[in-house]
Design brief:
Elements lengths: L3 E7 L10 E7 L8 E9 L11 H4 L19 H4 L9 E8 L16 E4 L9 E2 L1 E4 L5 E3 L6 H4 L2 H24 L10 E6 L3 H17 L5 E7 L2 H7 L5 E5 L6 H12 L3 E6 L4 H9 L1 E10 H18 L2 E5 L4 H12 L8 E5 L3 H9 L6 E5 L5
Parallel strand pairs: 9-10, 9-12, 10-11, 12-13, 13-14, 15-16
Antiparallel strand pairs: 1-2, 1-6, 3-4, 3-7, 3-16, 4-5, 5-8
Helix pairs in contact: 4-5, 4-10, 8-9
Length: 379
């Protein structure tokens, strides 16, 4: 009989946050011949994407269907989800426990047993965080330098990577806009608005500040952050050369839109919106100029793009879905954070046994920055 290990599965919370964290004991899978088995040390507190099916082992470990407890649609009522503190993804950092039987010195990609690594969110990733994770191919495993704390590394495979991809796409959009500008407007800067307060927006601001300065794009882009709460306002002001506008949702929409335009000096050219609601996207589009582009995650795009397709045509604006990024981008990100070129956002580490309590606090925006679950202590 196969040995068992613990698995923590986090489902998308419905209107009631309770019963969206499940603890199972699942069979330990054999190490695939061309892959590896990872002992999870830390994992980012993310919920399962809707396009990821629940694992068979997890489903067979409980007597009732998860759908009885967890609605398939995330409730945007939770502040932590609206602002990007709690988002779908798969963030794992750990050590290699074993390598497959077909792995040797010629094809091990420089990996070895006991090495600290993070895992790129591959398509067959399980629905939860098991203590031992089977990875089918070594190409999904990214080693991390000794200088990078493993709890920080755990934040990179989804939150930081998605933010990085959005920042890179925004620069690409801006450069195309600059090519089309009239000669008399060539010296005018493009305006970028980043919407959100949680981990996604905080990563995006930090990555944008570094990347645009490195590529020279900072000469062409002004960054403003639309913060959704007071704590995010304070955290965002720690970044130099970034303007802040507070989106207090107690105010009427016209007031928020005018406030944003005042801070930005008019309508903006590009919006990276890490919000998850129709209201957030609608507001972003009203802050966007004609011909502008708004970038949203592909998870949110699936839900909102059909609702806003007509409006985007009417306003002559474009909505672009951003995916999680590539393995190569993740490797680049690891080195930038390890070399302290990018400072990670605030984060807190909790024992995995407290997962349910952590998710409750994330949904209520009671945890600044990111929350990390620790499964084992190796440092």
């Amino acid at each position: 009989m196969n040995k068992l290990c613990r698995q923590v599965s986090i489902e998308s919370p419905g209107p009631q946050v309770r019963n969206c964290v499940f603890n199972f004991f699942v069979p330990i899978e054999d190490t695939p011949p061309t892959g590896a088995r990872i002992k999870i040390v830390c994992a980012g507190a993310c919920y399962r994407r809707r396009d990821r099916s629940a694992s068979i082992t997890s489903m067979s470990s409980v007597s009732s269907d998860l759908s009885d407890y967890c609605p398939s649609q995330t409730s945007p009522a939770h502040a932590g989800i609206r602002e990007g503190s709690f988002f779908p993804g798969f963030e794992v950092a750990g050590v290699i426990e074993s390598l497959g039987s077909a792995i040797n010195d010629s094809n091990n990609c420089g990996l070895r047993i006991g090495q600290r690594v993070i895992v790129y969110p591959f398509d067959e990733a399980p629905a939860g965080y098991a203590e031992l994770l089977v990875v089918p191919d070594l190409k999904y495993i990214v080693p991390i330098p000794d200088s990078l704390p493993i709890c920080v590394a755990a934040m990179l495979p989804t939150g930081a990577l998605l933010a990085m991809n959005a920042v890179f796409k925004a620069e690409e959009v801006v450069r195309e806009m600059l090519k089309k500008r009239a000669p008399e407007d060539a010296d005018k800067k493009c305006k970028l608005l980043i919407v959100g307060t949680g981990g996604l927006a905080l990563w995006a601001v930090r990555i944008a500040s570094h990347h645009y300065a490195t590529t020279g794009a900072d000469k062409h882009i002004d960054i403003t952050v639309a913060s959704l709460r007071d704590e995010g306002f304070r955290l965002a002001t720690e970044i130099e050369n970034v303007s802040i506008v507070q989106w207090n949702e107690c105010l009427y929409e016209p007031q928020l839109i005018e406030r944003t335009k005042d801070v930005c000096g008019g309508t903006v050219d590009v919006v990276i919106d890490f919000g998850t609601t129709s209201r957030s996207l609608h507001r972003s589009m009203h802050c966007l100029n004609k011909g502008g582009v708004v970038l949203i995650s592909d998870e949110v795009a699936e839900k909102l793009m059909p609702k806003f397709s007509r409006l985007s045509v009417e306003y002559q604006q474009e909505i672009i879905a951003i995916n999680n990024g590539s393995v190569e981008q993740l490797k680049e990100l690891v080195h930038m954070v390890a070399d302290k070129k990018i400072e990670p956002p605030p984060h807190s580490v909790f024992p995995c046994e407290q997962a349910a309590e952590v998710i409750q606090k994330l949904c209520s925006s009671e945890i600044p920055g990111r929350a990390i679950l620790r499964f084992h202590d190796i440092e």
